[in-house]
């Protein structure tokens, strides 16, 4: 019975947070519509290729030792701390590419100890979750409430570290992208204004969606483990 209460409490928590933060499904659709706007993409097509943009921004950040790779197969860009590499996804048809690249460049100058800890800790957290679920299904794991408590603590630590890294990069990305476009000079002031206004629209939705997604990833683990214990 206590496991059912925990599962229901987690679901209620996510619903309350969704209403409190005004998270709407249509916001995801709105992000895609803005991100793939042909009109906005035509403006940013005047800018250099993604790899060149990345090199210039890294130079501005005094971090030119980073490896830069492009991948047509990836849908998400990210910074790999283990080999100091920025992987640029297939984003050439989105006007957000400057801001996306700036975001990953900012990750590359964050504290390496924090980035490494986040990478290692995230994997340990995931392995622990998978392990206790499998062991519970096999009837090996006992004291379910203890593991729910541990999952909760691990989740809080994960959120504290990951949200710090993401919010730090996200709040600095827009000014960095603005600075790049001003110095690059291919876009008129009016075009820059149009791009930045739409960046603001995306960021207003994106920041709260990122936080909510992180909380969902933590809470869903507790829900799944609780469901395993129930059945």
Task: Draw up the topology in text.
Layout: H1 2-20, H2 25-35, H3 38-44, H4 50-60, E1 67-70, E2 78-80, E3 85-88, H5 97-108, H6 112-137, H7 144-184, H8 189-230
Parallel strand pairs: 1-3
Antiparallel strand pairs: 2-3
Helix pairs in contact: 1-8, 2-8, 4-5, 5-7, 6-7, 6-8, 7-8
Description:
With 231 residues, this protein is mainly alpha-helical. The protein is 73% helix and 5% strand. The protein has 8 helices and 3 strands. The protein has helices spanning 2-20, 25-35, 38-44, 50-60, 97-108, 112-137, 144-184, 189-230; strands spanning 67-70, 78-80, 85-88. It has a 3-stranded mixed sheet with strand order 1-3-2, with helices on one face. Helix 2 (25-35) runs antiparallel to helix 8. It is elongated, with a radius of gyration of 21 Å. It starts with a helix and ends with a helix. The mean pLDDT is 94.
Short description:
This protein has eight helices and three strands; from the N terminus they run ααααβββαααα.
Key features?
231 residues, mainly alpha, 3 strands, elongated
Helical percent range?
over 70%
Following the backbone from N to C, one meets helices and strands in this order, namely: HHHHEEEHHHH
Count of distinct strands: 3
Report the total helices: 8
Largest sheet: 3 strands, mixed
Mean pLDDT: 94
Radius of gyration: 21 Å
- Give the helix/strand class: mainly alpha
Bulk shape? elongated
Low-confidence stretches: none
Report strand %: under 5%
């Amino acid at each position: 019975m206590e496991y059912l209460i925990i599962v229901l409490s987690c679901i209620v928590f996510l619903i309350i947070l969704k209403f409190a933060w005004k998270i709407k499904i249509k916001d995801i659709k709105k992000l895609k519509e803005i991100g793939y706007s042909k009109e906005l993409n035509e403006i940013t097509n005047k800018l250099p290729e993604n790899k060149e943009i990345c090199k210039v921004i890294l130079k501005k950040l005094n971090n030119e030792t980073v490896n830069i790779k492009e991948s047509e197969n990836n849908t998400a860009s990210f910074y790999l701390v283990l080999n100091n590499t920025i992987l640029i996804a297939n984003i050439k048809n989105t006007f957000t590419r400057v801001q996306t690249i700036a975001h990953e460049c900012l990750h590359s100058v964050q504290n390496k100890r924090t980035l490494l800890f986040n990478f290692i800790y995230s994997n340990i957290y995931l392995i622990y979750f998978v392990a206790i679920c499998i062991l519970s299904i096999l009837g090996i794991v006992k004291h379910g409430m203890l593991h729910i408590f541990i999952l909760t603590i691990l989740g809080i630590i994960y959120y504290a570290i990951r949200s710090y890294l993401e919010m730090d990069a996200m709040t600095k990305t827009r000014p960095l992208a603005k600075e790049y476009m001003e110095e690059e000079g291919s876009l008129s002031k009016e075009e820059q204004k149009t791009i930045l206004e739409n960046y603001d629209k995306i960021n207003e939705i994106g920041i709260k969606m990122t936080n909510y997604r992180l909380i969902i990833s933590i809470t869903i683990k507790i829900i799944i483990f609780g469901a395993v214990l129930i059945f």
